[in-house]
Design goal:
With 322 residues, the chain is of the alpha+beta class. The protein has 7 helices and 15 strands.
Length: 322
């Protein structure tokens, strides 16, 4: 029976999943046949179907794609030992073939036969019969020429089915007839997520900076130096909250609160998960640069191929629907 060895992304204990059903869906949703505790996986990420020749895995339009032996696929026939990657989880497929050359011996039947043979009485001895005289040896007959045997026609060559047509996209991944993996988010929905994040971030920064500003104004007439120090601390804390609000969620999951509300996610163009602090830092620099040039870098999302802003181009990222 085919088995999937599940290696979680967080180095938790490995476990095995038996492919007993003809069709099993895989994803982070609880309604899947194989539910994964992996935030990098889509709710319904992939599907494994039992076919006449084995098992077929198919991507269900996931945001990060389905990878088999480090190659992104849309549909793929699984073989024994194949390594499937879904989000940060690794699935090792095991389906050893039965060796037809193996001879199965029924030991129970042999033992029963031996027991029956041991219980049966011995046969009485048979008296030898007199041998008849040998007949005279006649000379061998003359060989008769036989008609030539017509040559046997060789068997027809086996019919090999043509491989399914596979189109290669400009990004280098195989593209099948299934749904497009990771539909790119447009300008309107991204603007909505940006406004939600801006409102949340403004409230958080105001909670820190307004009290420090009021405190600095109160103690300013008595000690200008201490008032300046309080204002500086409040400003630094506000900046830290603003940067951390974007940098940490980007690096760990690619999802800010605003993007989570509108079901959006930031992913790397090379498919690696998670985004990481290096890519998140480059994207944040692109954010700042877009603000310095009158938000042109953000407006580029509405007109560029793939709906990419300046920050996406700098960091090598894109925003997709989950």
């Amino acid at each position: 029976m085919a088995i999937l060895k599940v290696v979680p992304a967080d180095n938790a204990e490995e476990w095995e999943f038996l492919l007993e059903q003809d069709q099993v869906t895989i994803g982070r949703g609880d309604d899947n046949g194989l539910a994964l505790d992996d935030k990098a996986a889509s709710r319904h990420h992939a599907e494994i179907t039992k076919t006449a020749t084995g098992f077929l895995i198919r991507d269900l339009g996931s945001s990060n794609g389905t990878w088999v032996n480090r190659e992104r696929i849309e549909a793929h026939d699984l073989g024994d030992g194949d390594e499937v990657r879904i989000g940060g989880t690794t699935l090792i497929f095991s389906d050893p073939e039965f060796d037809e050359s193996t001879i199965l011996v029924d030991l129970a039947g042999i033992q029963d036969a031996e027991a029956t043979h041991a219980q049966s009485p011995p046969l009485p001895p048979v008296a030898p019969q007199p041998q008849a005289p040998a007949p005279p040896v006649s000379p061998p007959p003359m060989p008769v020429a036989s008609a030539p045997v017509p040559p046997v026609a060789p068997p027809p060559p086996p019919v090999v089915a043509a491989p399914p047509e596979i189109r290669v996209s400009s990004a280098g991944g195989a593209v099948g007839s299934g749904p497009q993996a990771g539909e790119t988010a447009g300008f309107g929905i991204r603007l909505g997520a940006y406004l939600i994040d801006s409102i949340i971030l403004t409230i958080a920064v105001m909670v820190i900076m307004v009290p420090s500003g009021i405190l600095a104004a109160v103690i300013g007439p008595k000690s200008q130096g201490f008032a300046l120090f309080v204002s500086l601390v409040g400003w630094l804390l506000g900046m830290a909250v603003g940067i951390g609000y974007l940098l940490v969620p980007w690096a760990k999951s690619g999802i800010t609160p605003g993007k989570k509300m509108l079901k959006l996610k930031i992913v790397r163009e090379d498919g690696v998960e998670p985004l990481g602090y290096a890519k998140a830092g480059l994207r944040l620099l692109g954010y700042m640069a877009s603000g310095f040039i009158f938000y042109i870098g953000f407006i580029m999302v509405a007109f560029t191929d793939g709906h990419k802003g300046l920050h996406d181009m700098i960091a090598g990222t894109r925003v997709v629907k989950t």
